[in-house]
Structure formats: structure tokens, C-alpha cells
Amino acid sequence: MDKNVQEERFMGMIKFTPPLYKQRYQFIKDLVGKYKPKKVADLGCADCTLLWMLKFCSCIEVLAGLDICENVMKEKMHRLSPLPGDYLQPAERSLTVTLHHGSVAHKDPCMLGFDLVTCIELIEHLEESELEKFPEVVFGFMAPTMVVISTPNSEFNPLLPGVTLFRHPDHKFEWNQAEFQSWALNIARCYDYSVEFTGVGPPPTGMEDVGFCTQIGVFVRKYSQTSETAHFEKPTKAAYKTVFKAVYPSLKDEKYLQNAVVSEVIFTAQVIKRSLLDHLKSEHEEYNDGPVEIKSKFQHSKNCVSEDLEKLAVGKSLEPFVNGNAVYVPLTKIFSFPKVNQLCGTFEKLCKLITGKVTLSSDGSGVMVNTEHENEEEEN
């Protein structure tokens, strides 16, 4: 049975709002919002719910999950895949999500270099031999900047109707506050971490000594890793099996950036063209009683058009103008729009990204937007 469902059954008269498991996930999400880690790993990720929540945190660029049960991960791992909207509007950040099948008692170099490692309701599921190896794997080998470990507080169990020994049949143990804090403080001393204790699911009024229903230890590495303190031990063979990997479209990838810039340039040019034609149409109507004929109004001889275009283009006109069946929209004008400016950063990059992708004037100083469609609409 799912550990979160099992837990809810035992809440009985004590109601936690939101449910306790959601409070644990929210605790992690709040921590991410505060410290802005770029690489986060969830050990014992189960059905990937926490990873799914964290993928929406804009600071995170790498998400990894590890669980001993491959089938549980696979049930809902599809939620971690990019959606069509992610391709239509790629994010500015890069994001890679990976799921691994394996044990937290084994070392694998794929788990090195993380800023935050979470172990939510994990340690109580470990066999004694696995629990003994756990500190060295997580704090010694992986050595992330921050580790968050949550586990049931056995002192709260008498308040949960239906709990006789443990809250879940797969639990190998459940510690009271003193036991958990003693274990955590020993790890902190051994691996140069500090640790602070907190929790979620407060006890009823007047029973504060019982502590939180879920006790949490937040470990922070005291020193930044250097060439002297970093662990160079690397297994020659990967211990985990990768069962899922998703690379999200990102504007950091020039392919997606170019697509976004070209789309925005075309859209912006169309907006400028429409605005210009509406303005000219309004002017024309002021002096003519008959219907508007945009084509006759703006159609010039080819020689005259070429001369006008050449003069304006050489002068790098900042304003658009009609050129026969096309509107000349200066790139400088397009670049002044906030979205285009934000995407490109520099005018030079704008020119580079759209070259060959949009119709430009002969000297490349402006976008040429066809007006034939508008003329047809006016005639109909």
C-alpha cells in the first residue's frame, strides 16, 4: 500500500490540513524557494510526486530521483515529461529530469555534485545493513550542500488511533525524538555538517513535548568542497540503472532560442505593419470619399520604389514604410520591443538568429512584410 495512503488511514481523529505528506513536500518546496538550489536529488522518490512539484521551481536545472522499486517510479513518471506547451514556449532555464533504479546503500557517480538531497520518509524503510551504509553514501560520497531527512516520530504514535507498532508495515523502525537527534548529530559530527531539527504536523495544544508527527533534520555542509576535501572515490561501474530521462526545451539551446526569436520577430513585424497600414488607411479616408484602395494608394513604380528603399535603408530609418506590396520594418524598431530585446540581448545576436529565417531587405537592415493579403481583403 502507498505509504501516504497508509498514513492517512491512521490519522483518525487527528486531522492535518493539508495532509501530512503534502506538508512534507511543501516544506521541501519552501526550502528550495529560499535557497535556490540548481541540482536536487530525491532519494526514495517513490511515485515521483515531489519531483513533479519541484520541476516547476525555476531555479532548478537538474532533478534526479532514486528508488529501490522500479515499478512504483514507472507508474507516474510520465508526469515528468515535457508537455506540448514546453515546446511552444521554452523556458529560459535548462531542465533535465532523470530517474534511477537502485539502493541508497550503493554509490554511483551520477549522484555527485548536487546542491540539495532529500530523503522524505526513507530511512525507516531501510534494513539495518543499509542504514549503516547510508551516512557514508549520502554525506561522505555524495556530499551535497544540504540534506533534508524526515522520519516518523514514534512519540506521536499513541495519538494516532489504529497504530499499534509502526505506521507502515514496511517500516523497520520508528525513532523517538532523542533517537533521531542522536543519530543525526553523530552524522553531522562525522561529516562536517551542521543540523537543525524541526518538523511538520504539530501536536495538540498542551502536548508540545510529544513533538511533531514528522520529525525533520536539515543538514548543511560546513565547508565548501575543495580539491582537498572532495571525495575522489568513484566506482568504476555504475550502481544504478537509469529508467527515465527527460531534457526540457530551453532557450539556452540555440535551436529553441532561434525558433522563439524568429516567431517573435515575425509577430512583432506583423503588429508594426498592421499599425502602419491602419494609420495610412485612416489618413486616406480623411481626404477621399470613396472606398480605400491600399494597393493604388501605395503602389509605386519599381524604379521609384528601389530608389526610396535604397535611400531609407542606407539611412537606417527607424520608422517603417510601405514599399509596393511590402512594408519595410527596421530591425532597430523590432529590437526595441521588450520581448525581442530580452530574448536576444544584443542587436548583433538578433541579426545572426534571423538571417535566412525571415525575409530581409537587400541590405539586411529591415524585415519585409508582404501586404498582398491586406490588399485582397480591401478589394473584397
Summary tags:
alpha/beta, single chain, 40% helix, 3-stranded antiparallel β-sheet, 14 helices, 11 strands, 380 residues, 8-stranded mixed β-sheet
Explain what the structure shows.
Helix 8 runs antiparallel to helix 12. 40% of the residues lie in helices and 17% in strands. It contains 14 helices and 11 strands. About 6% of the residues have low confidence. A hairpin with a 2-residue loop joins strand 9 and strand 10. The protein is α/β, with parallel strands linked by helices and 380 residues long. The protein starts with a helix and ends with a helix. The longest helix is centred in the last third of the chain and has 34 residues. It is elongated and about 90 Å long. It has an 8-stranded mixed β-sheet with strand order 6-7-5-4-1-2-3-8, sandwiched between helices.
Write the layout of secondary structure elements.
Blueprint: H1 3-9, H2 20-35, E1 39-43, H3 49-54, E2 62-67, H4 70-76, H5 84-88, E3 96-101, E4 116-120, H6 128-142, E5 146-152, H7 177-191, E6 193-200, E7 214-221, E8 241-247, H8 254-287, H9 294-298, H10 302-314, E9 321-323, E10 326-330, H11 331-335, H12 338-344, H13 347-354, E11 366-370, H14 372-379
Parallel strand pairs: 1-2, 1-4, 2-3, 4-5
Antiparallel strand pairs: 3-8, 5-7, 6-7, 9-10, 10-11
Helix pairs in contact: 8-12
